[in-house]
Specification:
Distance between the termini: 38 Å
Number of strands: 13
Radius of gyration: 19 Å
Strand order of the largest sheet: 3-2-1-4-5-6-11
Shape: globular
Number of domains: 2
Largest sheet: 7 strands, parallel
Strand content: 15-25%
Number of helices: 9
CATH topology of the largest domain: Rossmann fold
CATH architecture of the largest domain: 3-Layer(aba) Sandwich
Amino acid sequence: MQILITGGAGFIGSNLTLELQKRYPDAEIVVIDNFTSGYFKNLIPFKGEFLSGDISDRDFWDYLGKNYKFDVVFHQAAITDTTVSDQNLMVKVNTNAFKYLLDTAINRWGAKVIYASSAAVYGNCPAPMKEEGCLRPENVYGYSKLAMDNITKKYLRLYPEAQIVGLRYFNVYGPREAHKGKFASMVYQLAVKMARGQRPRLFKWGEQKRDFVYVKDVLQANLLAMEKPVRGIFNVGSGKARSFNELVAILNKELGTNLEIEYFDNPYDFYQNYTEADLTKSRQILGYNPRWSLEEGVRDYIGWLKENGFI
């Protein structure tokens, strides 16, 4: 089996790369990244081929199409900074590049494509969010992912045999995200601060809710998408929204701290206040069932952070 992973040096991409290497030791795996939001140390255990490349360059896809042949493509590469306001750049890197990828994967390789969409497509739609329900992104990042999903729907109509799977990630946290700095998950940022004895800071009044999903469940969803003959767009979350206040309480318990929360005003007008995945479709078609509660995921993650010297 020949596998291509874009964005393989990033947070989710590197976890996926190493998991595939472990589960499929005979597979030929090629990773692409330009380190815009990736980090080379995430891939030190990787034994396959690495290429630096710009996914928004059509010529780069022509080169790959002519010189490689893949059975499966995992597309994780993107601008992941949701505060980027350059609309043209966001759509160029996220949406246009995805179309180049699909044209190459379907027409030249006949490959299965599994790509990262996002719960940002839902914005502040009523929760729980359903794949075919309300779609109202609050920023251009969410719009770029919605545009990708719309291209997918078009290609699934045009190519009845094509297998394209979009995974709408909710709030993912876990190992190998530290390089993202202030764009790493709230779980990571709060854990590091609290481990140093600093009070956690939350937007008033900490009752905003998120569907926190551990990266190991995200890997499960990607592997199911590869192994099963499925196509379409699926939510990937825990299926249960939890407040930031609850998260701080869990972190206090796991870190052995008793730090009080400092609240401050939210400066963002495009903030998602409540996200929760409706997993009905994902369970029925993809066979996805999250295995990690927030308590269990945080406990496992804190152990990893300690073992690797982050806290």
